[in-house]
Predict the structure.
Amino acid sequence: MSVRWIAIVVLAACGDDATITPHDSGPCTDTHDEDGDGIGDKCDDCPAAADPAQRDTTEAATMIVFPDGIGDACDPRPALSGDKLGALHTFFDPAAAAAWNGSGWTIADDLAHATASARWVHRTSESGDGLFVQARLAQLAWDVGGRFEIAIDGDGVGSGYGCAIVKDTDNDGNDELEAREAVGTPMSKSVNMAITGAITLTAWRFFDPQRRGTIRCRVTFDANNATLDIPTVDDFPIGIYGFASEASTTDVSSLVVYTQPPLPKQ
């Protein structure tokens, strides 16, 4: 009688700009645990979202695809395989500042901190047909004109797109979610209240099989959320990303980047 062994390799990333390590290559240990779920960053299938159970089951539930190593708690496309963890930036090491172009941010106490205008763009880019960038904010104290933005597929100034949360611009007591092309007119929507508490901002660029692109901006704070989509004109992903703060005291605890595989040609 023979026994068939099936091994599933799960990939995750370690620390800031770390290499990807197979879970089953040996004992996995990491002293830094960004999401506080008891599993070190390099061993965690969702290193920026607490998931102590480490479940990666949603793809398998479709019966046509296999788990891709991105846990259910953070998978951008839970029913599709092929997503990858491109980078995890945790800001626990001040030396990580060398990986970014720009100014205004400092790293201390496991946070990227800004008190005035600040913008960082990462020195490397990620490949794929989709780019999902998510920032978690530990603190946001803003004044009139305050905003926090993720730039995607460009630097957010002369190129690319931006997803931002913006301090109440029309004095109705409600803050806004904004999506924009770097050189275009922004589109915004009210979140119907002030943005407070634990804040997560996501910028996601993806394409459909006809190469029609979309930028999806999403903010989650406490038990509230808002989403805004805008179409993109070009269909060429670049993979550059960054983040910026204006007129705010901002602490960013982590920035995580996921990629999607190239779509098959039609």
